[in-house]
Design the sequence.
């Protein structure tokens, strides 16, 4: 394929940079984060990361999967145990993966299923329970809990949601603008080649990248170019580092 030939040429051009990075260490650091999703590409993505020595931060929620179960059910325990053994870190993505749709005074936040108008109003204790439930489930499966970080579904937060989470020890981690890999976008408008080219061109030091273990609605799985992305970023001299707190670049973007 033409785009693969073009990518191979790009790697050749970047080879001197890659050699320099090996001699002098990383030229930059990126933080790969992976949210739960349809999970149909999970084994392939995990195998690529393991083969290339990439450690990521995995934000977990209890979402439906292609198997007919959910991501935090017992059937996924071996998968999460293997990721913990490989040195990945974990964060909470809320238990139900509902969406925050606005604050209710100073004491509540609306929490609504995708596509619905009505949901529930969480107070501080309710939101903290939603975050901690992921930690409890992960500990039961792997013996390892989440770091004190969380990500709101869709990255959509409210002032109350952020404040309630901080009060129970969780700092929010979204993603940087250049770190949006686009794996959930429609493939007819955003084919893999376009997403890969954009990522390799725009990602800079300190970026927080976001993707999923599979997106049900995407006809061209992003996982097909995941290894090309990893190889391309390494060729530019980037190392991958998991997160235990929001990184400086993300905090700087949030203040703009």
Sequence:
């Amino acid at each position: 394929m033409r785009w693969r030939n073009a990518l191979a040429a790009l790697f050749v051009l970047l080879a001197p940079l890659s050699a320099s990075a090996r001699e002098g260490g990383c030229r930059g650091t990126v933080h790969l984060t992976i949210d739960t999703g349809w999970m149909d590409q999970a084994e392939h993505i995990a195998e690529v990361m393991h083969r290339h020595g990439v450690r990521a931060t995995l934000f977990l929620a209890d979402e439906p999967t292609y198997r007919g179960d959910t991501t935090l059910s017992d059937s996924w325990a071996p998968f999460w145990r293997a990721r913990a053994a490989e040195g990945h870190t974990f964060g909470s993505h809320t238990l139900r993966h509902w969406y925050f749709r606005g604050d209710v005074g100073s004491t509540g936040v609306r929490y609504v299923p995708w596509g619905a108008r009505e949901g529930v109003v969480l107070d501080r204790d309710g939101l903290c329970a939603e975050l901690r439930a992921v930690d409890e489930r992960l500990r039961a499966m792997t013996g390892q809990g989440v770091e004190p970080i969380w990500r709101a579904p869709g990255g959509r937060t409210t002032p109350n949601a952020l404040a309630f989470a901080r009060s129970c020890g969780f700092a929010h981690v979204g993603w940087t603008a250049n770190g949006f890999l686009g794996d959930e976008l429609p493939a007819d408008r955003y084919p893999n080649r376009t997403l890969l080219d954009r990522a390799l061109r725009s990602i800079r030091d300190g970026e927080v990248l976001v993707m999923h273990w599979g997106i049900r609605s995407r006809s061209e799985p992003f996982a097909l170019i995941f290894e090309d992305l990893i190889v391309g970023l390494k060729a530019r001299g980037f190392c991958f580092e998991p997160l235990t707190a929001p990184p400086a670049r993300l905090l700087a973007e949030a203040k703009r």
